[in-house]
Please model this.
Amino acid sequence: MTASDAPVVIVTGASRGLGYTIAEKLLAISAKVVIVARSEAGMAKLAEQYPGHVEYVTGDLGDYETGVKAVQTAINKFGSLSGIVFNAAVISPVSTIATTDIEAFKKLFDVNFFSIITTLKAAIPYLRESKGKVVLVSSEASYESHFYGWEAYGSSKACVNHLAATLAGEEPDIFAISVDPGVMDSAMQQEIREQHGTQMKGAHHEYLVKIKEDGTIPSTEPPAIVISNLVVKGPMELSGTYYAFNSPALSPYSTA
Model:
């Protein structure tokens, strides 16, 4: 791959965990990557390891200008934009509908959903030009009711699924898909284990603690491979759909 035809991809929530691994997979194929997160350390490490291939934006995506700045950075530094992975998300508040803090609920939606829309508004003209690709990281909680206390997070991910379908319908030259990466060893899982046990059903929380303690919690590697492949070569026949990363439909994208 030459420098001129290298993909230019924005990855949000990329200072650690799934987003970091996705960025690594893209950089391994010589992509140019703009990474976005609240914490600078992990992003600075990637920039040092891949000089000339990484730009980063430090900021909270709840501030809508952060995503817009990422788009501007891709255009100003790399000259184009061919894909976006919307990975950044927060889990709090974890509570019942009856007890939820509505302001915290709104803040979650600012990060998990509205920041995607404002970033897409800035990005769509460039994605039209490149016939680009958008991958929205979703969750089984978007449709399953057994995630007790996750109504804010799950609702936001249901919106993400619908947004992928809507984007695909409105923009026939832009590939869009939502992907569930499954349970994995991430900072979000650590927060769930350490902070939200009393707001969840005991069996669910105990399961998440157990798979960490016994070492069976899956790594971020398998879903990162699928997502990094989709944002570069996702086929239009899958545009507008939602799949778990390990679905048979996505098996062609499961190898690095």
